[in-house]
TrEMBL record:
Catalyzed reaction equations: Couples ATP hydrolysis with the unwinding of duplex DNA by translocating in the 3'-5' direction; ATP + H2O = ADP + phosphate + H(+)
Residue ranges of the region described as Disordered: 539-570, 698-744
Protein source organism: Prauserella halophila
Name of the protein in question: ATP-dependent DNA helicase
Enzyme class: isomerase
PANTHER family recorded: ATP-DEPENDENT DNA HELICASE SRS2, UVRD / RECB / PCRA DNA HELICASE FAMILY MEMBER
GO molecular function per UniProt: helicase activity
Length: 809
């Protein structure tokens, strides 16, 4: 009785409804931004359950981030209650982890494998490259890692990589790949790309395993399909199948939604081929186009269409909205990045004062994370509430990684990268030489690093001096003490506390005078809190879990869906944090409709700062697009590279289409980049917005005039918006007044400016120079500089204040 479910389809347009109700053949929904693709996907799940008799255990929905997955699960559980627990809603990575843990035996692996993120992978690659005697400049771990990742995204395994190599670099990288995989497997670890590739392999090599999952998941749904790569596409195809299996299991129903114009992950191997060739990949497929945009005003939509239409080789889409024209796009040319941030802050303040928006309605976008610094500085000074999404990610902080490495070693003693990370952290007198002796011994004897450490204790490692041996013995005893805690079922939070105390990690930070160390301690406390909450919620989930077999489940082999590892266990905790870290580094997708409500509770009254990548799938009433300069957005790297430029333009399209009511675009005449002021020309994307849609609040000085000389602030025209209220920060800024103490607009007063804090030995990643190691730091405050060795790019001295396009690793 499908006709009676109007509560699920009544507020959809005919095309959306067709997509929700479609049954049978694979379905592709292609449509521009804001046309309700994600809404169709969630509704379809609800409809499958309510109208088509599907049960949650038959549904697998793949979203781009864990956050999107959580939101979708929440909505479905409102609909069907506890039974929704049986539904798989996850990212590609989490889904694969689940399958792989369950099927580890088939692949002759141990199910407690570690998941290596990009940083772990880079560490391992550094070791491999060193052992293979590769020239560290020509074969940088990052480049090797990117190449291997590309190969994996194309499902090219280490054995066949050599035959795909076309130049010297690729040939050497193929050798590295082989050794890297050997070490990974020795460490009982997989990197993110392996998760996908091994699952594909599992399905291809073991048809009975593939059939098990196909029998089980009768409905597979994928959001943001334009950002899938070849490996992910293959995974989907293996999962649903294209013809019946030998024992007669029909292909599962597939529904994917996407927009080729929003493909912004080509650098991770994503390919819009997957959308373009969908009908070839799945021959009986049906395609539905959506053409009505429900998100933005016509002005915003026209601006977006005009920009994206400059891209070659794209299918033109007709996107229309029944919303009116709305406000014009506001443009602003700032003297420099501080002035730009002051404009944004002033404008936000004015909008809120007028009641035109709440803080939570507002998002500020930039191209790269390091651009957030200037906004944060001024928001803090003005007392504007904000949060930065992404940015310096919690799980990438050194102290968090150190302590998690202890836990990872406790869960998987073979995890060499983690073990070597903590070997001398905090310092306990196990130097590089001692580490090398142990590593050599491990290689020679073909034993794991941890076994080699135990050999060291038993004095079986040659060349090891007695002092190192003693230090290693103490370390092994320390670890054994932790293993006892794990074995006796100690709570994860308490194990963490023990690690912090017994290793001296906390004491070291406690006794430090560096204010950074105080915040490191806070972060570690936060991690302990995360662990406590994890244990509590696992206990709650266990208490709430449905009795097995109480439901009238259909005949699909509905195992009580016990996820491995055991809920609440240490491996489960580590899996959670690895995958959260993953989601952090991937844009937080979507949500669309109802998602926003959920968000509002969490973030009431907070302006959101994020990169455009992170904004994919989201929407805000007010959007500030900042740094629209050639060399910033589009990114420097894309200038003169047509392909990359096209990707940047899609990114601009994503940025514009996040806005519902008001869009601002701004640029700075001068911006400090790489420690130097540089004058960037206007972004070409600005010119691509039709002039009649733009209301320039402040334009660039005409070429005849003084370019930034004299008093740029005096040249600022804040007008154009009568009735802005004289108490707004905007007008105070305009008159040079101060809202909070110490604020002087764009110049002077660096006192509480946030500087990048670095120490000798820290690893950094610089937008222009790449990876480097801090040799030394000099000076303090506004004069703080660091001398950094960027390998092939040379040794450079950089200022650490202002918008440094560099992150600490
Ligand atoms: P993106 O390409 O940015 O991911 P999308 O195509 O997934 O966008 P949604 O996020 O699903 O679009 O929807 C955009 C907005 O339009 C949401 O606020 C959603 O609630 C609203 N919307 C979608 N369809 C309808 C409809 N039929 N009636 C009213 N509002 C709708
Ligand atoms: Mg969407």
């Amino acid at each position: 009785d499908q006709g009676s479910h109007t509560e699920l389809t009544g507020d959809l347009n005919p095309s959306q409804r067709a997509a929700v109700e479609h049954a049978g053949a694979p379905l592709l929904v292609v449509a521009g931004a804001g046309s309700g693709k994600t809404r169709v996907l969630t509704r379809r799940i609800a409809y499958l359950l309510a109208a088509r008799g599907a049960h949650p255990g038959q549904i697998m929905a793949i979203t781009f981030t864990n956050k999107a997955a959580a939101e979708m699960r929440e909505r479905v559980s409102e609909l069907v209650g506890r039974r929704s627990g049986a539904m798989w809603v996850s990212t590609f990575h989490s889904m694969c982890v689940r399958v792989l843990r369950r099927e580890a035996k088939t692949l002759e692996m141990s199910s407690n494998f570690s998941i290596y993120d990009a940083d772990d992978a880079r560490r391992l690659l550094t070791l491999v490259a060193r052992d293979l005697d590769l020239d560290a400049k020509r074969y940088q771990p990052r480049a090797l890692g990117a190449h291997i990742s590309n190969l994996k995204n194309e499902l090219i395994d280490s054995e066949s990589a050599g035959s795909h190599a076309t130049n010297d670099f690729e040939r050497r990288a193929a050798e590295v790949y082989v050794e890297y995989q050997r070490r990974l497997s020795q460490a009982n670890a997989m990197d993110f790309d392996d998760l996908i590739m091994r699952t594909v392999e599992l399905f291809q090599v073991f048809p009975d395993v593939a059939e098990y999952y196909r029998r089980r998941f009768r409905h597979v749904l994928v959001d943001e399909y334009q950002d899938t790569n070849h490996a992910q596409y293959t995974l989907v195809r293996e999962l649903v199948g294209t013809e019946p299996t030998e024992s007669g299991v029909e292909p599962a129903e597939l529904c994917v939604v996407g927009d080729a114009d929003q493909s912004i992950y080509a650098f991770r191997g994503a390919t819009i081929r997957n959308i373009e060739e969908f009908e070839r990949d799945f021959p009986s497929a049906r395609t539905i186009l959506l053409e009505q945009n429900y998100r933005s005003t016509q002005t915003i939509l026209s601006a977006a269409n005009s920009v994206i239409s400059r891209n070659p080789n794209r299918r033109d889409k007709r996107l229309w909205t029944s919303e009116g024209d709305g406000e014009k796009v506001v443009g602003y040319v700032a003297d420099n990045e501080h002035d730009e941030a002051a404009f944004v802050a002033g404008e936000i303040d004015a909008l809120v004062d007028q009641g035109a928006a709440q803080y939570s309605d507002i998002a500020v976008f930039y191209r790269t994370n390091n651009q957030s610094r200037v906004f944060e500085e001024i928001f803090i000074r003005l007392g504007l509430p904000y949060r930065v999404v992404g940015g310096v990610r919690f799980y990438e902080r050194k102290e968090i990684r150190d302590v998690l490495a202890y836990l990872r070693v406790l869960a998987n003693p073979d995890d060499t990268v983690s073990l070597r990370r903590i070997l001398n952290v905090p310092k306990r007198g196990i130097g590089d030489r001692a580490e090398a002796c142990v590593a050599t011994h491990a290689e020679r004897e073909r034993i794991s690093f941890v076994s080699a450490l135990r050999d060291a204790v038993a004095d079986k490692v040659p060349m090891l001096n007695p002092r190192s041996r003693k230090a290693i013995t103490a370390f092994v005893e320390l670890l054994d003490g932790f293993y006892e805690l794990v074995d006796s079922g100690t709570e994860i939070a308490d194990i963490l506390e023990a690690v912090l105390d017994r290793t001296g990690y906390r004491a070291e930070l406690d006794s430090s005078n560096d204010p950074q160390d105080a915040s490191r301690l806070e972060n570690l406390d936060e991690l302990v809190t995360v662990a406590r909450e994890f244990t509590e919620s696992a206990a709650e989930a266990a208490a709430l879990a449905p009795e097995p077999d109480t439901d009238e489940e259909p005949d699909t082999d509905e195992e009580p869906d016990v996820p491995t590892p055991e809920p609440g266990s240490l491996p489960a905790f580590l899996e959670r944090v690895s995958l959260v870290a993953d989601a952090d580094s991937i844009p937080e997708s979507d949500g669309g409709d109802e998602a926003d409500e959920a968000d509002e509770d969490d973030d009431a009254g907070v302006v959101t700062l994020m990169t455009v990548h992170t904004a994919k799938g989201l929407e805000y009433p007010v959007v500030f697009g900042t740094g629209w300069e050639d060399g910033v957005f589009p990114h420097l790297r894309a200038l003169g590279e047509p392909k990359e430029l096209a990707e940047e333009r899609r990114l601009a399209y994503v940025a514009i289409t996040r806005a519902r009511e008001r869009l601002y675009v701004s640029r700075a005449l001068v911006r400090t980049q790489w420690g130097q002021p540089s004058a960037n020309p206007a972004s070409r994307f600005l010119d691509e917005i039709p002039a009649e849609l733009l209301d320039w609040r402040r334009e660039a000085p005409s070429s005849g005039g003084s370019s930034g000389g004299g008093s740029p602030r005096a040249a600022t025209t804040w007008g154009g918006r009568p009735g802005t209220g004289s108490d707004s920060a905007q007008s105070q800024l305009a008159s040079g007044g101060m809202r909070t103490t110490g604020f002087k607009g764009t110049r002077g007063d660096w006192k509480d400016t946030i500087a990048l804090k670095l120490d000798a030995g820290d690893r950094v990643n610089h937008d222009k120079y790449g990876l480097g190691t801090v040799v030394s730091t000099e000076g303090t405050g506004p004069r703080a500089t660091a001398t950094i060795d960027f390998g092939g790019a040379g040794t450079v001295r950089l200022m650490l204040i202002g918008s440094v396009p560099m992150v600490k690793l």
